[in-house]
Design goal:
The chain is α/β, with parallel strands linked by helices. The protein has helices spanning 62-68, 94-108, 123-135, 160-171, 175-186, 189-193, 205-218, 225-236, 242-251, 268-277, 293-296, 298-315; strands at 13-23, 31-41, 46-51, 72-77, 116-121, 139-145, 254-260, 282-286. The protein has an eight-stranded mixed sheet, sandwiched between helices. Strand 5 (116-121), helix 3 and strand 6 (139-145) form a beta-alpha-beta unit. Helix 1 packs across helix 12 (298-315). The longest helix has 18 residues, at 298-315. The termini are far apart. It comes from Mycena alexandri. Residues 47-297 form the AB hydrolase-1 domain. InterPro entries: AB_hydrolase (IPR050471), AB_hydrolase_1 (IPR000073), AB_hydrolase_fold (IPR029058). This is Alpha beta-hydrolase.
């Protein structure tokens, strides 16, 4: 596995590798369609699954893995069409990507009842909804961050500014040239200009996030255009009906919907739509916060997750 470098702290690593994903037609032998790259960090009793957003790999969870690994078992992975994972042929859907995760969980033996804490951001939150519909009995808590229940494709498009950002990124080749667009897409401009907390060099958030983005690029294989487009199609065609959302909120012990008030990719109303269909869920909205919610406010995000995990334990 030396040819697959990782950004995560090797001292917390328990295992990493590739999970084969198979498909078969009726009456024909199963064949491998692709594989999922995964890493487990920590050995705590609480099992945490972190699901990435659109066209991002698992290294975006670096802070949360470092902060959760001392107390939890944390599973991160690259979705199909991104990072070290494979690129299966055919249309990508959030339901199909959720099925990938079920295969991965069975592969590593995480199949116990009501022990899994699922955290999904953006596209990862859409996938998490489909996952919860399929294995709700295994899930202790579900955290849906800056995401949407979906609808018809034209209802799933980001706000106009977000469409412009995504189009620009699709047409830009060099990572260094992408940085300004990525930062404007994920974070409020006022926050980017502020001095970063706990930075010994007193740099701005813009400087710190630029460096982190480029560091992730160094550790990551370049995403192929087919993966970029296929994941986008999965997001645009996502839809979980109000009835199915209600079923999730009634069966998963602890559900939290988290959003920011300055999101250029997933309009705030979508989080409110989720809450309307999931009355048992807790709704959390952070001010002056963009789509990159877990990287803009990593400490607050970590503290929220710890509370959610503990609340779920109290419910159980």
């Amino acid at each position: 596995m030396a040819q697959y470098p990782t950004m995560f702290d090797p001292s917390s690593l328990v295992r990493k590798g590739f999970c084969p994903v198979h498909s078969s037609s009726t009456g024909t032998p199963a064949f491998e369609t692709h594989s999922l790259y995964y890493e487990q960090h920590g050995t705590g009793d609480k099992r945490v699954l972190l699901i990435n957003g659109l066209n991002t790999n698992s290294f975006g969870w670096d802070f949360q893995v470092r902060s959760l690994a001392p107390m939890c078992s944390v599973l991160v992975f690259d979705n199909r069409g991104c990072g070290y994972s494979g690129y299966p042929t055919g249309r990508y859907t959030t339901s199909g990507m959720a099925e990938d995760i079920i295969v991965l969980l069975e592969y590593i033996g995480w199949t116990a009842s009501c022990q899994l804490h699922v955290v999904g951001v953006s596209l990862g939150g859409m996938i998490a909804q489909e996952l919860a519909l399929r294995i709700s009995d295994r899930i202790a808590s579900l955290t849906l961050c800056v995401t949407t229940p979906g609808g018809m494709p034209w209802q799933n498009f980001p706000p106009l500014q977000g469409v412009k950002f995504l189009t620009s990124l699709l047409l830009t080749k060099e990572p260094e040239e992408k940085v300004p667009t990525v930062l404007k897409m994920l974070y409020p401009a006022s926050w980017l200009d502020e001095t970063a907390m706990d930075d010994e060099r007193q740099r701005s958030n813009r400087e710190v996030q630029s460096e982190l983005y480029l560091r992730r690029v160094l550790f990551s294989p370049k995403q192929r255009i087919i993966g970029h487009v296929s994941q986008l199609v999965a997001a645009l065609t996502h839809h979980v009906s109000p009835d199915r959302l209600r079923r999730i909120s009634q069966t998963v012990p602890k559900v939290v919907i988290l959003c920011g008030d300055q999101d250029f990719l997933v309009d705030l109303r979508h989080s409110r739509d989720l809450k309307a269909s999931m009355p048992e869920a807790e709704f959390v909205q952070w001010e002056s916060t963009g789509h990159g919610i877990h990287s803009q406010r990593p400490t607050e995000f970590h503290e929220l997750l710890v509370r959610i995990f503990n609340d779920a334990g109290a419910v159980n």
